[in-house]
From TrEMBL:
<dbReference type="InterPro" id="IPR036388">
    <property type="entry name" value="WH-like_DNA-bd_sf"/>
</dbReference>
<protein>
    <submittedName>
        <fullName>Transcriptional regulator</fullName>
    </submittedName>
</protein>
<feature type="domain" description="HTH arsR-type">
    <location>
        <begin position="1"/>
        <end position="95"/>
    </location>
</feature>
<dbReference type="Pfam" id="PF12840">
    <property type="entry name" value="HTH_20"/>
</dbReference>
<dbReference type="InterPro" id="IPR011991">
    <property type="entry name" value="ArsR-like_HTH"/>
</dbReference>
<dbReference type="InterPro" id="IPR036390">
    <property type="entry name" value="WH_DNA-bd_sf"/>
</dbReference>
<dbReference type="InterPro" id="IPR001845">
    <property type="entry name" value="HTH_ArsR_DNA-bd_dom"/>
</dbReference>
<dbReference type="GO" id="GO:0003700">
    <property type="term" value="F:DNA-binding transcription factor activity"/>
</dbReference>
Length: 109
């Protein structure tokens, strides 16, 4: 899979607010699939939670490990770091450079 295809999977996974909410929960601590289903009870059924987890797994944002009949879900921060290095950091450096230039220009006047 190419880097662009992986990035597409990550951005697709992050595009849904419910998946972002799942990632927020997993950021706090690993959780079982059952626990995630309970957290979203009333708004999402078990099948929908599983579908969202599958999207997050395909994107590499979640690692699922089976222990007996229990499925533990762990946040993998590596894709976030890769996205930061590829997309956020270069644009942030550019913005900081432009702001510094603007500040110098304003102060010189």
């Amino acid at each position: 899979m190419s880097r662009a295809e992986r990035d597409d999977l990550i951005f697709k996974a992050l595009a849904d607010s419910r998946r972002r909410a799942m990632l927020d929960l997993l950021k706090e601590a690993p959780r079982t699939t059952g626990d995630l289903c309970e957290r979203f009870e009333g708004s999402l059924d078990r099948c929908t939670v599983m579908q969202h987890l599958k999207v997050l797994e395909r994107a590499g944002l979640v690692i699922a490990v089976k222990e007996g009949r229990t499925r533990w879900n762990y946040l993998d921060v590596t894709p976030f770091q890769e996205i930061h290095e590829r997309w956020i950091s270069p644009y942030a450096r550019e913005a900081v450079g432009l702001l510094s230039k603007l500040k110098r220009d304003v102060e010189d006047d």
